[in-house]
Specification:
The structure holds two protein chains of two kinds. Chain A is mainly beta. Chain A is built from three helices and 16 strands. Chain A has one domain: Beta Barrel (Porin). Chain B has a five-stranded mixed sheet with strand order 6-12-11-8-9, with no helix packed on it. A four-stranded antiparallel sheet of chain B has the order 13-2-15-16, with no helix packed on it. Chain B has two domains: 64 residues, no CATH class; 174 residues, Cupredoxins -  blue copper proteins (Immunoglobulin-like, Sandwich). In chain B, a hairpin with a 2-residue loop joins strand 4 and strand 5. Chain B is built from four helices and 17 strands. Classes of the chains: A mainly beta, B alpha+beta.
Chain lengths: 405, 260
């Protein structure tokens, strides 16, 4: 809690508006305090295999997140963004960047606008994490799909986008083509193989660890860059479709000096957002893919796992309130290789209900309940039955601010 | 000289008169004549003056007539915020005075008004009264411009000196779209909630009336028509659209810290 206290002091200093002396700086911050009640098995954050951020032995009053996001405009075209996070669960790296990148966005001179990002940032997949600092806006906890994206994936490289702006042609919408090239994503897949999907708003940071997971997520092992490429279509700002293919082009035979291997992970991801009436938002996302580790010469001992995850979400906003219901479905299938029997197949689904209330411009209250039903045979190794139902109730009090100077 | 020639035409006098009415003033010359008559003249002058007034009234009604336009959709419901312009056919010349300035505001991540109609030569201010900064631009042929990231009112008004449609965007919030319709027609406006717009003090003659809205999908031929405005008679025209309006739901208002 000491680091949280320091971040709180920092937030207060920024709130005093002394930092923002220039009109080129935007600072947004959130301090999120939680009260948690849980009957869940020991969380992966605490060395277990539980699929939730908190568990029966780690609930009560917790720091949800302390976040400071800054945007510094260097020129009219170039802006540098950084997101600094503290979660109060990483004594080695109490405060760390989760994103740090420069964005180049020239004024459009015709119907196609080019833009680029360079640095470390999230891929444009999630339809839930729409607020500053990749914060989910419809619930406290994002879906299993977006939880995993926030844990194991960060583009550390370059992304370019070409966006056709329809307004000049009388069409109210746009179509965008996006492509990224990156490195330092070779471990992507290890968490899925050793834990399966989870539901958590604990995003990984660039150099910090995720609870007691004994590995870092962002390192280069095989010296082969990966890529992604996606297409999105936005119609009237009420309907949006996205598709993206990701491939880290990992060499599953490559091994670092300390023994960590490179994972080859690829997936397709699809998303749709519909806002049919003024108060409703409907979201759906789906992904499926495969992750592999071990040389091809290992034959049946090469570890191969396919995975899929999807969710459907309905959210209703009225006035200062928001009510969300979400159904998640996820699973993995280890079809070769061994992490020691039994196979690490996971099958699960979950229901999430969340209610948000903006008390004032700065203060927000969020209450959320999650119930996860999942089967995961490796639980036997820690003395748990493979099939479990885990529940978690959270109440978050958030102080948020945004300053532009 | 050009202005004097223009004022010698009926169109020019009607333009001047409409401008003065618009500014809340009375034509100075008639006011001066009335004061003179009341103060110093005898009976014969009174009779003469009455006759002059009567002739003047008739002549005045010949010069100034009204035109009411209305726009309804396929189902007969009124269509609001349709730009309507009326240009006299066969009469050319510059407007009698400088066009009025206009304001295109930015509130809640939207341009306000969504559609603005101005005369050629107008200067338009782009204040940002939103809680976040905006980068306004247009690459429309009628006006290419860029306003670097700002809040408040740091930029000078922009001059719109070519007729045509100017589509506005924000380089940060792509869902923000606004329109400035720049016209060289002397009479213009937008339909009200009843779908109608009344032009007053038009000179007699033939007019080309043009309709435009980002939501109207009808062919340009249907959206342009000739209307004859007669002395003393109230002219009117009703446009019933043949195609459904384009739907454009109001963008959802985003919470302050949302990136969209």
């Amino acid at each position: 809690m000491r680091c949280a206290s320091w971040l709180l002091v920092l937030l207060c200093a920024v709130s005093s508006r002394q930092v923002c002396a220039s009109d080129t700086l935007t600072i947004a911050g959130t301090l999120d305090l939680r009260w948690v009640a849980s009957n869940a098995e020991t969380s992966y954050m605490n060395g277990g295999l539980g699929p939730l951020r908190f568990d029966a032995d780690h609930d009560g009053l917790r720091l949800g997140r302390a976040m400071l996001a800054g945007s510094l405009r260097l020129t009219d075209l170039i802006t540098v963004h950084g997101v600094l996070d503290a979660y109060g669960d990483d004594p080695d790296k109490p405060v760390d960047f989760s994103e740090l990148y420069a964005e180049v966005r020239p004024f459009p001179t015709n119907a196609v606008r080019w833009s680029a990002r360079v640095g470390a940032f999230h891929m444009p997949i999630s339809l839930e994490n729409r607020a500053v600092g990749w914060t989910p806006v419809y619930s406290i906890t994002p879906s299993a799909l977006n939880t995993w994206l926030g844990e194991e994936f960060r583009t550390i490289g370059l992304e370019g986008e070409a966006r056709w702006l329809g307004a000049s042609s009388g069409y109210y919408g746009d179509v965008a083509l996006v492509a990224g090239a990156y490195g330092w994503n070779d471990p992507a897949g290890v968490l899925l193989a050793t834990r399966g999907f989870a539901l958590s708003d604990r995003t990984s940071t660039l150099i910090g660890s995720l609870g007691r997971t004994p590995f870092g997520f962002f390192r280069e092992i095989d010296h082969r860059p990966g890529y992604y490429s996606g297409l999105s279509w936005r119609h009237h700002d009420t309907f949006e479709l996205r598709a993206l293919y990701y491939d880290n082009r990992g060499n599953p035979a490559a091994t670092a000096a300390d023994g960590d291997g490179a994972w080859r992970t690829y997936f397709w991801s699809y998303g749709a957002r519909l806002e049919p009436a003024n108060h409703w938002t409907l979201l759906a996302q789906y992904m499926d893919g495969e992750t592999t580790i071990g040389p091809d010469s290992a034959g049946p001992d090469q570890f191969n796992m396919t995975f899929h995850a999807g969710f459907a979400l309905a959210s209703f906003e009225w006035g200062r309130q928001l009510l969300t219901a979400r159904y998640d479905d996820f699973g993995t299938n280890q079809y070769s290789g061994f992490y020691g029997p039994p196979p690490a197949d996971q099958a699960g689904h979950s229901w999430t209900l969340a209610w948000g209330y903006d008390l004032t411009e700065h203060w927000q209250l969020f209450v959320e309940g999650i119930r996860v039903t999942s089967s995961y045979p490796p639980r036997l190794s820690v003395g748990e039955p493979p099939a479990r139902v885990d529940s978690q109730l959270q109440a978050a009090v958030r102080y948020r601010f945004r300053l532009e100077r | 000289m050009r202005l004097r020639k223009l004022l010698n035409t009926e169109y020019g006098q009607a333009m001047l008169y409409s401008r003065l009415i618009h500014l809340g003033q009375k034509p100075a010359r008639s006011g001066t004549a009335t004061e003179f008559a009341l103060g110093r003249c005898g009976f014969a002058t009174w009779i003469t003056l009455l006759c002059v007034c009567a002739v003047g009234l008739v002549a005045g009604s010949c010069r100034a007539a009204g035109l009411t336009v209305s726009v309804v959709d396929r189902q007969g419901h009124p269509v609001v915020d349709v730009v309507v312009t009326a240009a006299p056919i066969g009469v050319t010349g510059p407007p009698a005075s400088l066009p009025a300035g206009a304001v295109m505001d930015q509130v809640n991540r939207a341009f306000v008004p969504g559609v603005l109609v101005v005369a050629v030569g107008a200067r338009v201010e782009f204040p940002n009264n939103d809680s976040v900064s905006h980068q306004v631009y247009s690459f429309s042929p009628a006006k290419r411009f860029q306003l670097p990231l700002y809040k408040g009112k740091p930029h000078d008004p922009a001059l719109f000196d070519r007729p045509g449609l100017v589509v506005l965007g924000c380089n940060i919030h792509d869902q923000m779209v606004g329109y400035i319709y720049v016209t060289d027609a002397p009479y213009f406006g937008k339909t009200d909630a009843d779908g109608s717009l009344a032009f007053k003090d038009l000179a007699d003659g033939e007019y080309q009336v043009t309709f435009w809205s980002p939501l109207v999908a009808d062919s340009p031929e249907l959206l342009t028509r000739k209307i004859h405005v007669d002395a003393g008679a109230a002219a009117s025209t009703r446009l019933q659209l043949t195609r459904n309006l384009r739907t454009r739901p109001e963008p959802r208002m985003r919470k302050g810290d949302w990136e969209y």
